[in-house]
Amino acid sequence: MIEIRLEALAYVYRGGIRALDGVSLTVPAGQRLALIGQNGSGKTTLVRHLNGILRPTAGRVLLGGEDTARRTVAELARSVGLVYQNPDRQIFGSRVRSEVAFGPRNLRFGTDRLHTAVDAALAATGLTAEADTNPYDLGSSRRKLLALASVLAMETPVLVLDEPTTGQDEPGMAMVAGIVEAASAAGRTVIAISHDMRFVAESFERVVVMRLGRILLDGSPAEVFARRSWEPLQSTFVEPPLAAVVGDRLGLGSTPTDDDLVDAIVRRSPG
Amino acid sequence: MLTFESVTYRHAGGVRPAIDDVSLELGEGEVVGLVGGNGSGKSTLCLIAAGLAPRIVGGTLSGRILIDGEDIAPMPMHELVARVAIGFDDPWTQLSGVTGTVYEEVAFGPANLGMPRDELVSRVDAALSSLAIEQLAARDPAHLSGGQQQLVAIAGLLAMGPRHIVLDEPTAQLDPSGTSLVANAIERLASEGASVLVVEHKTDLIARVAKRLVVLAGGTIVMEGAAAELLADPRLRDLGVREPSAVRLRRRLVEAGLDPVALA
Amino acid sequence: MVGPLALAGLVVLLPAAVARVVRKLLRATLLLTLPVATSVLVINVLFFPGGRDVLFQAGPVTATREGLGLAIEVLLRLLVISGAISLFYLTTSAAELTTDLERRGVSPRLAFVANASVQSVPAMLERAAAIIEAQRARGLDTEGGPLARARGIVPIVGPVILGAIGEVEQRTLALEARGFSRPGPRTLLWHPADRPIERAARWLIVAALVALLAARALGWHPA
To answer: Does a structural domain hold residue C184?
Structure first.
């Protein structure tokens, strides 16, 4: 398992747009971290540095203490699995199973490990029964789960998800939340970009809010969604989850999740 | 008034009907939310309502779809589009891709209808102002945010002059600020008398904009009624519908033996 | 050599300078010609048959001055052609082109297709880049030897084609929903400015073309 460290990371796109403007961040191995903020705040640019697709304009990216500058993207793919937003930008297999096997095969998994990894990824995304289906016969929300499975099967110590809940219905949401939890329980680091604050508050232990290429807030959901953070959150169009708003109105302190709120009410009203 | 009269639809080569005996009415100035799990037939229903299925995407349909009492089947597509418009989830593929300014993009649809130039101009002006995006008129659509592009796409539909608007997951690809722009736009349209049918997974948005709710499962309407009440129905979750934040919080409180009055 | 040089200056560089796109033009042109140019240079310099004036010899190949001369001539022609194409794309607004084509009676569908195909090139490149990125993130080696690269073709070209098909389907629906299939003329929102000097320039180009063809037919051969 691997620690991620960003040191004064800056990135300027060709054309001069400064997408990252000095981001320093340490993510301990096994942490569940949500990256939030308006589109264009630098979230995706940041995660594209973790697997070496983008190289810093300034600053360093360290994986397990080692500078990624010396490693190729293909090498970094062993450490960091990144699931992109749009599944149609990666699916090419004629069968769900072969699509999922593509990544592990690139990483030269042995036959046994390959089968185990693919089976586990299919099970986690509810696609076991669709192993022989053509990916394009799945609906768009299940193709998104397929893309997730195809990276999950690479068994990387770091798993990065770019807006994994988009287009998912209730069972799909639950599945994604379950994957985050299971990966974290297995000691993997999970970093997710999301606009769904309920998912963020419930499935992640740390929330980093970005704005204009910098870190605006960084803390636990209770800290980031606390009353005193609402104003900075508003500046990047993030609304705290309903439970946080209700908890504040009831004078219960910061209760970012429904469970937090219920607990706080129970604690206050004995009997 | 947009009416479905026992509509059953099969995709080309489909064994089971994708839409099975659906009857539905969408009244003047009404916003109806359409929800259901993935694969329940929501998008197909939208394509049928807009006349794109079966005529463009193929398949077979029985039953009738009426606009203000008139069967849409024999209507040419270009007449139909001026009466019922449809918007999709991807802002990018909805734009024509051939225009250099938002103004021209909004004019693309009505210009296809070949109306006099004066009318075209006044329609575009009206559509831009009804979504409050006049300030974007001279911008290049390709260089707008997703939320802004989605508004431009909706303005492009409005300029065709339809009284019925079907939106299939209009905020799926948008961030919260884009989502709230679209929610505002839907409310504005309804207040101007258009009827809107909106498909969304984001039930918090549905709770905000829709008065009536239709729940689809396996291609059939399984529940229908006032949105505020239906969204609180515990069966929705079993049908794959995301529970709105307020509904879930209330349920949690009740389950913990607490008084949900605190939520009021 | 004089011919292509004169053409390059007169009909490519001069207009580009007026339009202030010289820098972009040079970049685009060089990018466009580079692959072909390299092979032209190698083949002509080294394998020109019957060259006498030997420049250098390396093993079985002999580079000759005649070969070099021909290579430069062909290169210049290539540069003029790709320069003219780049100039067109750099200075012509696709929207103006479509509007003007329609005004001149070209079918709106044809005008749309012409325009959309120009506009879709950057989108296609952007999509291809996103796909390459996603597959590299899945451990696809795009930097290895020829064999590794060959293995990368299907995972990259597959989604490019499937994605393009999917996008066409979605666009078709969106276009149908905007009355695109209606027969008959479209309302034109505006008329592109057509200044007298532009009109004069167009006639001049036609006249020059006719004159050059005539001169060639009469046996004139610029060195």
So the answer is: no
Give a yes or no: residue C181 inside a domain. no
Residue A146 has pLDDT above 60, yes or no: yes
Which tokens in the block code for residue B61?
A: 């349909």
Q: Judge: A170–B252 Cβ closer than 8 Å, yes or no.
A: no
The boundaries of the domain holding residue C217 are: 193-223
ipTM of the prediction: 0.91
- Summarize the confidence of residues A180-208 as an average pLDDT: 97
Both C127 and C197 in one domain: the answer is no
Q: Is A77 on the interface with C (CB under 8 A)?
A: yes
Whether residue C188 lies inside any domain: the answer is: no
User: Higher confidence at residue B173 or residue B17?
Assistant: B17
A39 vs B: CB within 8 A: yes
Residue in chain B closest to A245 (alpha carbons) equals: B263
Positive or negative, the Cα torsion across B207, B208, B214, B215? negative
Chain A CB within 8 Å of residue C159 CB? yes
d(CA A95, CA A108): 20
Q: What is the mean pLDDT of residues C86-96?
A: 80
Residues C7 and C52 in one domain: yes
Residue ranges and CATH numbers for the domains of chain B are 2-93+162-180+189-263 (3.40.50.300)
Residue with the bigger pLDDT between B118 and C69: it is B118
Last residue of a domain, one of C57, C91, C125: C91
C57 and C17 within one domain? yes
> How far apart (Å, rounded) are the C-alpha atoms in residues C67 and C51?
6
Position A271 pLDDT exceeds 60: no
Between B52, B95, B111, which is nearest C186 by CB?
B111
Best CA proximity match to A259, nearest among B248, B202, B231: B248
Residue in A44, A71, A155, A12 with CA at minimum distance from that of residue C130 = A44
Interface mutation vs chain C, best among B46, B75, B93, B168, most C CBs within 10 Å = B93
Same domain membership, residue C152 and residue C197: no
Q: What percentage of chain C has pLDDT greater than the value 90? A: 14
Greater pLDDT, B29 or C220: B29
pTM (predicted TM-score):
0.84
**Which chain A residues touch B254 with a CB distance below 8 Å?**
none
Pair B101, B41: CB distance under 8 Å: no
What are the tens digits of pLDDT across the range A93-109? 899 999 999 999 999 99
| Residue C133 and residue C69 in one domain | no
Of A213, A176, A207, A174, whose CA–CA distance to A191 is shortest?
A207
